[in-house]
Write a structure and sequence with these properties.
Distance between the termini: 28 Å
Shape: globular
Largest sheet: 7 strands, mixed
Number of strands: 11
Mean pLDDT: 82
Helix content: 25-40%
Low-confidence stretches: 1-21, 175-181, 199-207
Order of helices and strands: HHEEEEEEEHEEEHEHH
Radius of gyration: 17 Å
Structural class: alpha+beta
């Protein structure tokens, strides 16, 4: 786990940030402050009530369960609890890059220098994934391959469907086939963004 964490830090420190180059004009440059965790991939900022979804990341649905070595565990609840523990009482710094099909802001979010999505993927809490038309983060797929090879978290449960397939199977009333998709572009892991305001000017955590 330490090696994976060091790999994330190395990527974060050595590659160039590209988010400013692709961010549409109508998207805020930065959102910063305390957050309420809506679900494992979505945060609501207490000040301004901005809702942000982590770009390039998906996590098990809240009701999904997994089985590892004969032990059942609530994968969806674990993924949400992980995000709560990582952000509770912390200032979260997000660099918005786009909006999804529902108009929700997609962003790379950090607590200090910790990239929330990359760290969650490295620890097997969720998956590297982007819906059609959303920006890809190929570095996340590289991190995911390491977590999968080590059998961390969601990768320790062979029968656990990725959330997008779980949703499809629930909607269709049948199990969807698992499929893998590889990125066709090469983008670096996003760098942390530097707060433009002093942390003590922001709202108190409401969650």
């Amino acid at each position: 786990m330490k090696l994976v964490s060091l790999s994330i830090l190395f990527l974060t420190m050595t590659v160039a940030a590209t988010t400013a180059q692709v961010r549409p004009a109508e998207i805020p440059r930065q959102i910063y402050g305390k957050v309420q965790v809506v679900d494992a991939t979505t945060l609501e900022f207490r000040k301004g009530a901005e809702t942000v979804r982590l770009a390039g990341y998906e996590a098990p649905r809240l009701e999904q369960t997994a089985t590892s070595d004969g032990v059942d565990w609530p994968a969806g609840q674990v993924s949400r609890a992980w995000m709560i523990l990582r952000t509770l009482g912390q200032d979260v710094n997000c660099a918005p890059i786009a909006r999804d099909a529902n108009g929700v802001i997609l962003a790379h979010c950090f607590v200090g220098e910790t990239n929330l999505a990359a760290t969650a993927i490295a620890e097997g809490i969720g998956y590297a994934f982007n819906y059609r038309g959303e920006p890809q983060v190929p570095a996340y797929f590289d991190i995911e391959r390491k977590a999968r090879g080590l059998g961390y978290g969601v990768w320790s449960s062979p029968d656990l469907l990725p959330p997008w397939l779980y949703t499809a199977s629930t909607a269709n009333g049948e199990k969807a086939r698992a499929s893998t998709s590889e990125p066709d572009t090469s983008l670096p892991l996003p760098l942390p963004v530097i707060p433009t305001k002093s942390p003590n000017t922001h709202d108190v955590h409401g969650g």
